[in-house]
Every structure is written in C-alpha cells, then in structure tokens.
C-alpha cells in the first residue's frame, strides 16, 4: 500500500505555495518570484531544523524556484524570432497554481456534497410484478385509482420534506401488516383508505400499500369507491 506523507497540513508543494501567496495577501498573477522563493526556502529550512522528513517533490519545487529566481536576475535575452513563443517558467508556475486551486475548490465541493448525501435515506426500487393482477380491484375501482389515491396521500403528507431528526430504522413485514389490517377491519367493519396509514414513515406506508394489494389479490379485501375522486373504503369480503 502506498502512503502519502505531507509536510504539516500541506498536500504537496503547490499547496504550500498557495498558502504562502494567501499569507502574503497577493494575487496569483502578481507573485514576485524572488519573494515567494525566499518564503518557500525559509519554510523548507524550518522543517529541516525540526528534523522532519521532506518529500522529494518539495525539494524539486525548491530547485525550480531557485532556477526561476536566477533567470530573473540575469539580463534579458532578445529572441531572434518573435514567432517562436515559449511560455516562461513563471507563467507556467502561475498556470499550475490556478489549475491546482480549481481542483482544490472542486474537491471541497465534492466533500460537502458527500456530507449532505449522508443525511439522506434511499431505498432500492421494489419489484411489484407479483402483486399485479387484472382482477384484483372490485366494485369499479381500478388499480390506477388506488395508485392515484396513494400518490395524493403521499403529497399531502410531504414525505420528501427533509427531517432534522435522528431516525431509528424499524423493519416492517407485509405478512404482519396484512394480519393487522384484517384485524382492524374485523373490529370496524370497514375503513377509509387513508386510515390504514396511521404511521407516517416511508417504510410503513410502502409496506401497508403492498399489504392492501396482497389482500385484494388473494380475494380477502373489498375495495370500493362510490364515485370518481370520492374516498376509497375497504372491507372484508
């Protein structure tokens, strides 16, 4: 396994250079190679005095900065051809710093997105084909009517609204929920569709809806709607 060591809190020489530039409160495009080189070397020197291991990449950058500083101290050489443009080492360094800053900002954004994603709960799609039947619903109530009533109920209860609470997960069984529904219907005779969703958690609502479909499929449940858009009632057959 490969381990990446850092000097103090910096993830490489470019990170250290960005820190020094921000500490000096100057624009990246206005960096003074002589000053930034001296600050960089002072930092490396302080690390050596503390007997801290320094990655070779930091020393390579130190050599590049010293070379750039030396070039600036030499007299300017006039190019014979103006068409042969070559990017200067300083411009190259500035471009590298700008690109590194972009990646650094983007990684921070990804980190924030990851933190926000951990606050969300998701569930894999369920396979509902076993509950599909053309003769499940009785008394002129179609499966589309029941699904529409379920979706309207879901909207009113605002299930997608984020919760600022700690959720303790509880497992619900379709079989157990079927028994509970039948027990309530035997006591009350009939119930409104929405009365079966007394607990407003997503897991409970989904399991309850699946239990209703299962009971109807097995011919144990009568589902009735007097007129279009009226309340749906359920009773034992």
Give a description of the structure:
The chain folds into two domains: 13-75 and 86-117, no CATH class; 129-236, Arc Repressor Mutant, subunit A. Helices cover 51% and strands 5% of the residues. It has seven helices and three strands, in the order H-H-H-H-H-H-E-H-E-E. The protein has helices at residues 13-23, 33-49, 56-73, 89-117, 143-157, 174-188, 202-217; strands spanning 190-192, 221-224, 233-236. A hairpin with an 8-residue loop joins strand 2 (221-224) and strand 3. Residues 1-6 have low confidence and may be disordered.
Output the keywords.
single chain; 237 residues; mainly alpha; Arc Repressor Mutant, subunit A; 2 domains; three-stranded antiparallel sheet
């Amino acid at each position: 396994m490969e381990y990446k060591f850092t000097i103090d809190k910096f993830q490489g020489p470019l990170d250290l250079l960005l820190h020094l530039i921000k500490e000096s409160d100057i624009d990246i495009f206005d960096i003074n190679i002589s000053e930034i080189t001296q600050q960089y070397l002072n930092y490396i020197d302080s690390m050596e005095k503390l007997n801290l291991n320094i990655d070779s990449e930091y020393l390579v950058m130190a050599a590049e900065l010293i070379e750039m500083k030396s070039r600036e101290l030499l007299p300017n050489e006039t190019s014979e051809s103006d068409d042969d443009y070559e990017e200067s080492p300083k411009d190259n360094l500035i471009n590298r710093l700008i690109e590194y800053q972009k990646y650094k900002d983007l990684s921070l954004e990804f980190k924030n997105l990851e933190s926000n994603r951990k606050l969300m709960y998701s569930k894999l799609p369920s396979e509902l084909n076993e509950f599909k039947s053309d003769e499940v619903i009785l008394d002129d109530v179609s499966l589309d009517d029941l699904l529409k009533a379920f979706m309207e109920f879901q909207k009113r209860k605002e299930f997608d609204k984020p919760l600022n609470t700690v959720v303790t997960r509880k497992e619900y069984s379709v079989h157990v929920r079927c028994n509970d529904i039948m027990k309530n219907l035997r006591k009350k005779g009939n119930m409104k569709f929405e009365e079966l969703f007394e607990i407003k958690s997503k897991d409970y609502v989904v399991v309850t809806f699946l239990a209703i479909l299962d009971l109807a499929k097995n011919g144990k449940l009568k589902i009735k709607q007097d007129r279009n858009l009226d309340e749906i009632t359920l009773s034992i057959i």
